[in-house]
Amino acid sequence: MKEDIEQSENRLHEEIRAPLITQTYKRVTEEQAENGCYEKKQNRCMVYLTTFVAVCGSFAFGSCAGYSSPTQSAIREDLNLSIAEFSLFGSILTFGAMIGAITSGPIADYIGRKGAMRMSSAFCVAGWLAIYFAQGALSLDIGRLATGYGMGVYSYVVPVFIAEIAPRDLRGALTTINQLMICCGVSVAFIIGTMLTWRALALTGLIPCAILLFGLFIIPESPRWLAKIGHQKEFELALRRLRGKDADISEEAAEIQDYIETLEKLPKVNLFDLFQRRYLSSLIVGVGLMVFQQFGGINGICFYTGSIFESSGFPSDVGTIIYAIIQVPITALGAVLIDRAGRKPLLLVSATGLVIGCILTGTSFYLKGHEIAVKEAPILAVTGILVYIGSFSIGMGAVPWVVMSEIYPINIKGAAGSLATLVNWFGAWACSYTFNFLMTWNSFGTFILYAAVNALSILFVIKIVPETKGRTLEQIQASINAS
Q1: 462 and 321, same structural domain?
Q2: Are residues 292 and 178 in the same domain?
Q3: Residue 328 half-sphere exposure, CB side, CA atoms within 13 Å?
């Protein structure tokens, strides 16, 4: 009887333990399936390294964009520049970026994504050195034009390169790092620009370019570009390096080859073909968003933040640092929300915030000009600018680029994307060049004008822009054509 009892207890313990072991094993297996096993994570190290090297170009982009704001007073004083001369210096960056944007596609297709980034870095290095050694307006403008050209090429080739090397499940997350690093570059330039001379700040722009140039010797070329030009062996080696030596790349390689073959069968589209009736709706959406993004005042405010704070009576160093600190986390928040909240809600919230920010800033200048609530006016100005940049960062900064990448059919994506990018950089140049003149004319009127443009963007988004969240490209195209 005692033995029977012991045997029964042993069987009971085994029956209890067996399901626990099974459940534990099942749970571990599920976690491995979701998160990837240890080897799989190791295989993605090259993807992460390649992305890091590429977004050094995005950081260099931000450094170029953020340079003029903290250095305006010092450069004008040291080199005795007029408002017109400094306005040309600030805005010629975007003119160079327009040229870079136009030529970036053909260059990236001809010499490769790595070659385009290498050339872009060389232009930026030459530009920063010209600014550092400048003794007058001409050398400053040549250097600024060169960095602008490099910035324009970066704006196209970096996101394209990341999208082409990233695995399907990481593509969205890795691509958003591009916009985040641009904001980081701007913020770092704003912060350290309050501590360094304008010549020393120019030298710091060389750092991300140097890291990028060195890293390009380590990372592989885009497998899709190699497949497109027919380098089959190099294509397979690059894909193997990115996915790991033990990964099965046969399925992905076949998909890439099928895509390249489909692309080659589609008719070639030139710029004038974009204005056909069947493409017009998507063209209006993409180009329209770029117009409202730029003519809402972002580059004028970004380039001349320091002078805005000075004009309002708020300490420019303190305001610029607060501006820089708030920009990065809000941009990161927007990247998290874009696939959860949707594109249109973010655009509407962002545009509404831009209107409020412009009205607050404009009101502060009105109060100061009429000597009403003189002590409160500077606080109102900095509040308005922070509301403006926070609102822009969460939606209107990144979402137009995302929507643009989703609404164009594949056979016009290159030509339509180039047109939208050109319009974007033209708007950036026009806004940054006219900003100082508008502020001289009427500070209050300048921000009310920007508020009106942003109010129109709300109507544009409500009436014309489609929601693309959670829809296939074919569904998006069908929706646009139906409207």
Answers
A1: yes
A2: no
A3: 17
Cα 459 to Cα 278: distance, rounded to the nearest angstrom: 23
Domains in the chain, number: 2
- Global confidence as pTM: 0.74
Instruction: Rounding to the nearest 10 degrees, give the CA dihedral for residues 339, 345, 346, 351.
Output: 160
Phi, psi of 345 (to 5 degrees): -60, -40
* Same domain, residue pair 278 and 163: no
Q: How do residues 203-233 score in pLDDT, each as one tens digit? A: 999 999 999 999 999 999 988 889 888 888 8
Distance CA 159, CA 167 (A): 14
CA–CA distance from 270 to each of 157, 229, 411 (Å)?
20, 21, 10
Residues 231-251 have a mean pLDDT of: 85
Give me the amino acid identity at 204.
T
Decide: 211 and 205 in contact? Cβ < 8 Å. no
Domain interval for residue 116: 43-219
Distances (CA, A) of 245 to 40, 155, 242, 249: 11, 32, 9, 9
Task: Using alpha carbons only, give the angle 342, 399, 463 rounded to the nearest 5 degrees.
Answer: 70
Residue 149 lies in a domain: yes
Start-to-end CA span in the chain (Å): 84
What is d(CA 60, CA 101) in angstroms, rounded to the nearest whole number?
Answer: 16
Task: Output the six-digit token pair for 37.
Answer: 């096993």
Which of 269, 313, 317 is closest to 419 using CA atoms?
Answer: 269
CB within 8 A of 204, min separation 6: which ones?
63, 189, 192, 196
Q: Over the stretch 166-211, which tens digit does the pLDDT of each residue have?
A: 887 776 667 778 888 998 998 899 889 888 999 999 999 999 999 9
Residue 252 lies in a domain: no
One domain for residues 298 and 174:
no
Most trustworthy range by pLDDT among 115-129, 256-270, 356-370, 454-468: 115-129
CATH number for the domain spanning 134: value is 1.20.1250.20
**Residue 134 placed within a domain:** yes
How much is the pLDDT for 2?
Answer: 52
